[in-house]
Design a protein that fits this description.
This protein is of the alpha/beta class. Helix content is 48%, strand content 13%. Helix 1 packs across helix 7. The N and C termini lie far apart (46 Å).
Amino acid sequence: MDTSDAGGMTYRGTTALITGASSGIGEEFAARFAERGADVVLVARREDRLRALATELESRYGVTATPLAHDLAAPGAAATLRAELDARDIRVDTLIGNAGFGARGAFAEADPARLDAMIQLNVAALTAITREFLPDLVASGRGALVNIASVVAYQPTPHMAVYGATKAFVLSFTEAIAYETRDTGLRVLALSPGSTATEFFEIAGAEEIAGRGMQSPAQVVETALRALDRRRTPPSVVSGAANAVAATLAGIVPRRVALGASGRLLA
């Protein structure tokens, strides 16, 4: 295995595209791939944050960091992003599909426009971007595809019904892609964090259920990198021992029991 100075696989000479790169898990992925030698393309809506991060990564790691401000929930966002990268003659070896958001509350009382935007970003945009770049990733064989699911993907999530369903899609979709590409050099991983110290709970309006024992973005990304460094990358991994136990139990106990437990936790 070719290793980097930081340990694990090196991505020197490759380019990683990270969505949702302006903060949290996406920002941490950008830093860790830059640390391992990859040029990075940083995609999110907040251009000021992207530019600041790009400057920091270039200074610290000597890589090229390209900030691209895009609203990935906009129609045709995947094709627009591809056209901009083509215009800059940037070829992508790794894709980190991190952009997404959640919302808490009873489904019957939810804002339909917000639900549509969540489905568009968490499911439609992720699917379209993966399809747009997957042939390049496979042809390169030097990088990875990592899509961010969630521990809530393993059971229904009352009070966050649509968010949980979108993450169940990401988990199932990415595991299927891992199987389809199993004979290529591409490493494909669905990463499922639990509660993580990011802006997620503030945006979702769920600060009071964030709970103690949250992982840091660094811990979540380290889980992913350990999986990618393995000789055979698993199709999915849950970050955090307690979260892994919860995900396993959700598949063992009767579904009605898992549903009740999830509903009480998220109420």
